[in-house]
Amino acid sequence: MAKSSKSKKAEKVVLAYSGGLDTSVILPWLKETYGYEVIAFAADLGQGDELAGIKRKALASGAVKCVVKDLRKEFVEDYLWPLLKAGAVYEKGYLLGTSVARPLIAKHQVEVAHAEGATAVAHGATGKGNDQVRFEVSYMALDPSLKIISPWKDPNFTLACREAAVDYAKKHKIPVGQTKKKIYSRDRNLWHLSHEGGDLEDPSNEPKDDLFVISRPVSKTPDEPDYVTIGFYEGIPIKLDGKLTSGVKLIETLNRLGGKHGVGQVDMVENRLIGIKSRGVYEAPGGTVLVMAHNALESVTLDRETMHYKQQLALKYAELVYYGLWFTKLREALGVFFDVTQQNVTGEVKMKLFKGRCTPAGIESSNSLYEKDLASFKMGAEYDPTDATGFIRLFGLPAKVAALVNKKTKSVK
User: pTM (2 decimals)?
Assistant: First the structure.
């Protein structure tokens, strides 16, 4: 049984508050079930209109205070750019938009807890998902003395399905955007917008056109392409069409332009950390353009051995971010490696956006390792083809020896 709020001394709790369905009902539930003094913390990571009126809504729902921080600049420079430089993509499709945001939210949530004298932090992540791990591991890494409250894992929590949460919100007159007919779970920031739940839980269902929010369905995109040139300095995008542009503005612009052409829509079934397969549909127009442009620039500025080894470590980095292990020494150490690999990744990439695709339409770099004369089919003084004869003989020697041994063994039998 839950303890009565009258018999328990009020304890200050900082709730990671988005204003979405889950946290909208969790806030009053924490207050009425346990008598907590709930401080709502909302991080502006580029959600746009979703944050409109969030303070008013939190206070009306029972929060004693609502703290909103604009973290867009920090999100881009300290989280997204390291992710981009690493080339980290989870299971070939997910650009880690939600994964990389959670440690930043947790960091500032802990700071608010310290400033407000709170003894606990809370989140609205479900007991089946990845976010519960990302939040709680981050809390433990940042301040292990804080109590962690996770309502979805609380036996007294009776709202552990989205339909029940909708009913609770209606009963308590809490405005939410979800209905029982359109009950998607969404997470939005500068890097992406994710969609889960509802009819998407059946992988045989094609995403409907009205699912997409920040990008157009490919069938409704323009019949003429757009081109955009992105300038990089040591792996970080700093220019759009030749003009110095802040990271936040750069991503916002590419989101609009890429979204216009349906770029960055990914429908995938992924392996959650806890062992469950889940289906998600992602919109990441700006992130996709940047990842593809960055890959193109690396193709001419990284040597073969560095590129191939970096690709291996990028998989590990993606796992660490997906698993919520941002605040770990291994993640930091890999970041130093990736920084070194980016020292020559400077130049410009022209990208073509058309019918859901973004493709390189030109790469220029003063650090390019691409030599036209060497790459040409024409033989020249810079390359003596007879050198290849000895190289191939030595390179293929192990295969030749194995074949001779196998032949000898068979003849003996």
Answer: 0.92
Contacts of 320 by beta carbon, 8 Å cutoff, 6+ apart: 326, 328, 330, 331, 334
Closest by Cα among 183, 176, 223 to 24:
176
pLDDT tens track for 29-72: 999 899 999 999 999 999 998 899 999 999 988 999 999 999 99
91-121 burial, b at 16+ Cβ within 10 Å, e below that, comes to eeebbbbbbbbbbbbbbbbbbbbeebebebb
Identify the CA nearest to 68 among candidates 19, 23, 31: 19
Query: What is the phi/psi pair of residue 324, to 5°?
Result: 85, 20
Spot the catalytic one: 72, 131, 138, 188: 131
Place of tokens 């997204």: 80
Q: Is-catalytic flag, 4?
A: no
Taken in order of first residue, the domains within the chain and their CATH numbers are 12-182 (3.40.50.620), 192-302+344-364 (3.90.1260.10)
The burial class, CB within 10 Å (0-12 / 13-18 / 19+), for 348 is middle
Active site residue 70: no
Concatenating the DSSP letter of every residue in 113-166 gives HHHHT-SEEE----TTSSHHHHHHHHHHHH-TTSEEE-GGG-TT----SHHHHH
Q: Which residue has the tokens 């980290």?
A: 88
Is the C-alpha dihedral spanning 236, 240, 246, 247 positive or negative? negative
* Residue 102: active-site member: yes
Residues 6+ apart with CB under 8 A from 370: 300
Q: Which of 61, 138, 185, 278 is catalytic?
A: 185
**pLDDT (tens digit per residue) in 299-345:** 999 999 999 999 999 999 999 999 999 999 999 999 999 999 999 99
- Residue 202 is among the residues annotated as catalytic for this protein: no
DSSP state of 385: T
Active-site residue among 18, 72, 99, 102?
102
